[in-house]
């Protein structure tokens, strides 16, 4: 279940402290110009160690292209991208290899599989998202050829909301960090240039596929499109977006719907938000159990993000791009 | 894109005013006892015409089993269920067949397909959800054999919140109806008895599959699991669920996570909520355009729900059941 | 596992003596003109009771369109087609409900599922192929819009080979019938008009998808494309098809490859053949066992085909059409 | 379309002269013991340069495990395996980069994608099969835990048939090689120990999935199960396998069916054969066209196999193993 997409399809692999993580993109059309640098640029946005507000784990996250691109253009064959794991300090984890960290997948993986890579969270590590970002770079390039751009922003940290990361939000993060704690937030993604008609009825709705893709990001606990939960409080007469004729084009007077109606894009900006819980790894002492069920205290050491929202921005953009790329291709064959 | 699920897989079909709607369930194990009455009971919960608060369209929604069940038990072959469309008043729609109803999929379907069944919303009608409920009845029965139960409730209407539908909520709905308007709300679904270990890493997370399934319900604009958007405002030390040993079993002291960690069930109750927008069909006059792009006023007549939340409850339960049934089967083959 | 196809995708359902059999086609583009008569015409080709050489079970096999077609054109939504089972004589099977018919799936279904519809073979009955033919009719219509036609023929019965069914073949069938026996044969399908470039590398090869689809037909035990098994005896210099320039078009001087190279169509006729075993249902006495493992003699009564090849022709055409329709759509998005 | 399987699912990638080829296995259960040596052993069987009868391209085909295996056992997460391309002599191909080799995919890839990696056949090279063999090694190990073994053999070269590769066959190959030519043949694969009940009705038949998988091997032009094309010449009374009671177990007295009835295994040996065309790369002069449509003579130099059957044996085994592993897992959830 490590695949996503119907036509533009990705399969990711890799454990946090294994040899490498990576992704295979199957279904990207031939002839798309893409350079290693374009992929690297996206990866660099996700990388830690860039400010006081992100983890100190400094990895180059150097992408290697193993296949699918020849003379600077895609071949129509699978594009395999890998990122070697280099700055892995497995020792950080050895002391807690038999302790289940609260909020982490340690316990559920052990229960499910009976065998677990305890080094750095293994497959459940957010490091896995680098592979998504690499694939997302290709999806973004494909979308760009269709005039679509995707921009993400942190729009809430703790109780502080705003159009993008501001000083107050930074303070909240700094305070959490100082206390060995972490804090949650909200990331918004806007896709511009999506024409009317992307998305498929019923179970392939654009909103539905976006929900799946975005909620699959580690720490995401909520998803909304357009006005989202705010809609619950509204009347139909307030919430419906009136259709208008703008210079010969059918548009909506407002965009409460976030660009998607009946699961299909309506030509307005696509606007979605995801709520991220505070990072589970905190150095503050917590109660937990070990593999034998003995209750223990735990303080998660290591290099962790006090607010995962910051690094989640390129990941949320990537997931949005992957879904849109898939629907872009599907939209080409919806009518005869 | 009218299919959902990997092993327990459904494909729905049907337009609102066509011959019939229906569903094919492929992948239900053989030997499950299920009667037509058990399916009908679920369908009856979804049916309109039952109170002043739902649409007056009174359909029997009589399910017919075409295949897959023999001598009261499933055969392991596809289960085809159909519901004939009977009480269809296509005339209600003829006057607006060239008008795009705001908030509805009329315009995007026309743009996408170039050819549209305008009678009652066609495929985009919420009537399509009856097929989901029928399939969900089979999923619920399968889950029951594994000790899992699923209960949904309306927990918010407009700004009024509560454990379930209360008098204040009913008043808000009645007021909207009286004004030819509609109102939004929130539905919560709780699944009890799910053991630890259901869900698959990365793109097959239980949370992620639930998000996709629930957001595919018409009018849903938001989804959250556990504390959802509330998590954004919390510190890690507040939000992490401490692991404890309860009589030899590993449990959590709280359930902020809503029963899912790292995409995998942890043995606690699974708790999710969806936000539904106010129904788009309102008799209040709105501005819109017709197929030629001419601006027009529209008042949507016909028999509509002033608050879709009420009838969304069995649908949300069904979608939850369908996802859980799929993961129940998958969980059986996760280790050697 | 009752689905086939990636974009043009079908899901069939139904037991031989249940309420109905049917198919849901998901992914057919909107706007395709198709009438009930066009589907019925294909079904009529498959029907029994038409000559001394096929089963006497005379069913109208009347198709009903439940969804997906409006005003004579496809909507882009799922097309559900059902055929009610009418002329079912379940009594014919009651005497052998505990006997496993040699060559039939009775025993393996019982072992696999523990619960079996013994009436007329249930899901394993060749009656299931009517649903494929109905779906194939839509695929054929879609292909016709792309200039592709598909023609099947019986080219071998017993040891008698020929371009199509001839008198000697008919004699062989008549003799088998007279002796309460059955005889095998070979069906060939030719698709004309397929342009260069359909088919996907590695696991989506046109040849590979055709093999899967054709071998899924009941009684098929062999599949070949182009010269097939004959290739095994050839030298490369004999078997390679030289590329030539025919009036500005690249063509091949011969067609040993059967129109597919590296899994992708090369613009020549696609030629495939399937070998069908003699029908398993024969009135001649055979040895078998019952559900308790007791050895018994069995003479399969009822209305059976002495040579299934004849009725397999439209089925083989349908399966070929379904695969080609899927690849036709996929081919539209292979390059940017 | 570079994926195969439903539960035990592989995705391969890589061009012949690119950085690497590889495979991601998704869905292998956790806890399976597997060592790098076990995978390498299978790869070594496929490698060229081992006798006068195979290509002189001597590659180590050294497998690297990037993920999914920890402390010698599978984690239940994706297993990524790569093989770097080392002994690539792209110069061999430069002279023919604008020439379409007869029998090869050069022309169809160019037509389909508009952009092609001409070095060594790119993605269409049989080198891609090394990734299948690596994945097949894991599948074989999983099957072994269920008591299933898979053995392949060359049973025909040119017109010479036999139980396995014999002196006469070697002579035929040597003669073809001496003449700058190639020769076709047949490979047989037998799977022992498969219990009754693997395979799924209609489109997931074991026979049908095997056909798809085996025909996807480069050069395969025919597939048969059990008596295959021979069945076409038989009467039902000759071809049906009588069911018998062997010491309390239901078995068949003969195995014309090749271990599969109605698409489901019946507990007998599974026996299949594939026909391979003579290798397309021959040094004998042939007629062809170049990218501009100009007719040219071509003599394909480089290091090629005079008979691909020899190296196809481990590939055919691998493909059989991959399909069986998938159905082994599926069979565990067929009844309640």
UniProtKB/TrEMBL annotation, chains A, B, C, D:
What does the record give as EC number?
A: 4.2.3.5
Residues where NADP(+) binds: 46
Tell me one GO biological process term. Answer: amino acid biosynthetic process
Which GO MF terms does the UniProt record name?
chorismate synthase activity; FMN binding
Keyword check for Lyase, yes or no. yes
Describe its function. This reaction introduces a second double bond into the aromatic ring system.
Family stated for the protein in its record = Belongs to the chorismate synthase family.
PANTHER family in the record? CHORISMATE SYNTHASE (PTHR21085:SF0)
The name this protein carries in UniProt is Chorismate synthase
Write down the species: Candidatus Magasanikbacteria bacterium CG10_big_fil_rev_8_21_14_0_10_40_10
């Amino acid at each position: 279940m490590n695949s996503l997409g119907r036509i533009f399809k990705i399969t990711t692999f890799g454990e946090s402290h294994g040899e490498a993580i990576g992704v295979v993109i199957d279904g990207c059309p031939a002839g798309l110009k893409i350079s290693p640098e374009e992929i690297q640029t996206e990866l660099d946005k996700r990388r830690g160690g860039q400010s006081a507000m992100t983890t100190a784990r400094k990895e180059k996250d150097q992408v290697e292209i193993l296949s699918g691109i020849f003379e600077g253009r895609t071949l129509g064959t699978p594009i395999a991208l890998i990122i070697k794991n280099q700055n892995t300090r497995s020792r950080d984890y050895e002391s807690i290899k038999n302790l289940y960290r609260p909020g982490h997948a340690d316990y559920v993986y052990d229960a499910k599989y009976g065998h677990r890579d305890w080094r750095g969270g293994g497959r459940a590590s957010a490091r896995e998202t680098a592979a998504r970002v690499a694939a997302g770079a290709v999806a973004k390039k494909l979308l760009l050829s269709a005039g679509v751009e995707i921009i993400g922003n942190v729009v809430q940290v703790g109780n502080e909301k705003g159009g993008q990361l501001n000083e107050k939000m930074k303070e909240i993060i700094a305070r959490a960090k100082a206390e060995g704690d972490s804090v949650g937030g909200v990331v918004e993604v806007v896709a511009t240039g999506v024409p009317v008609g992307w998305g498929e009825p019923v179970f392939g709705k654009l909103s539905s596929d976006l929900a799946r893709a975005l909620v699959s990001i580690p720490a995401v606990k909520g998803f909304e499109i357009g006005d989202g939960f705010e809609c619950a409080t509204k009347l139909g007469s307030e919430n419906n977006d009136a259709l208008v004729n703008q210079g010969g084009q059918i548009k909506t007077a407002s965009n409460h719907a976030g660009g998607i109606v009946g699961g299909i894009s309506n030509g307005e900006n696509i606007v979605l938000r995801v709520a991220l819980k505070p990072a589970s790894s905190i150095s503050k002492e917590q109660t937990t159990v070990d593999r034998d069920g003995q209750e223990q205290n735990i303080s998660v050491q290591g290099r962790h993000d006090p607010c995962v929202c910051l690094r989640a921005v390129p990941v949320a953009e990537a997931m949005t791009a992957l879904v849109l790329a898939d629907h872009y291709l599907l939209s080409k064959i919806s009518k005869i």
